[in-house]
Amino acid sequence: MKIHKSAEDYLEMILMLHEQKGAVRSIDIAMGLSVSKPSVSVAMKHLREDGYILMDQDNLITLTDKGMEVAQRVYHRHKTLTRFLVQLGVDEETAREDACKVEHDLSPVTFEAILRQVEK
């Protein structure tokens, strides 16, 4: 199933917030992605319906195995691309921002080549 870039961003943010805070709420996602709370609500509805997340009675958000797989893949790409750009001399903040822009669009072949360079 093809997942949209915005959905990947939401799943990645959920993973990052879970690592930072443990519990993830919609407001944290809105702040992390600089989007409105209604936008997050719509996205969470779709992600829940598609089986990527679960929400409990307190509206805490968790990733399903399916959601975790996507989130970890995108987050791994993000971290690897950030490290690569920093190795090239880009400052950390710019590297993170640029990694976010390209993490979804790189082919697996290009990403693997970058990964090999980062791991040297």
Describe the structure.
There is one protein chain. The protein is mostly helical and 120 residues long. The protein contains six helices and two strands. The chain has a two-stranded antiparallel sheet. It is elongated. The relative contact order is 0.13. The mean pLDDT is 93.
Question: What's the structural blueprint in terms of helices and strands?
Answer:
Elements: H1 5-21, H2 26-33, H3 37-49, E1 53-55, E2 61-63, H4 65-87, H5 92-102, H6 108-118
Antiparallel strand pairs: 1-2
Helix pairs in contact: 1-2, 1-4, 2-3, 4-5, 4-6
Task: Give a short overview.
The protein has six helices and two strands, in the order H-H-H-E-E-H-H-H. With 120 residues, it is mainly α.
**Strand element count:** 2
Pattern of helices and strands = HHHEEHHH
What distance separates the N and C termini?
A: 33 Å
What share of residues is helical?
A: 55-70%
Main sheet overview: 2 strands, antiparallel
The average pLDDT is 93
Binned strand content: 5-15%
Please state the overall shape, judged from the principal axes of the Cα atoms.
elongated
Count of DSSP-assigned helices: 6
Write out the strand line-up for the largest beta sheet, numbering strands in chain order.
1-2
Low-confidence stretches: none
Which structural class fits the helix and strand makeup? mainly alpha
Index terms:
two-stranded antiparallel sheet, 120 residues
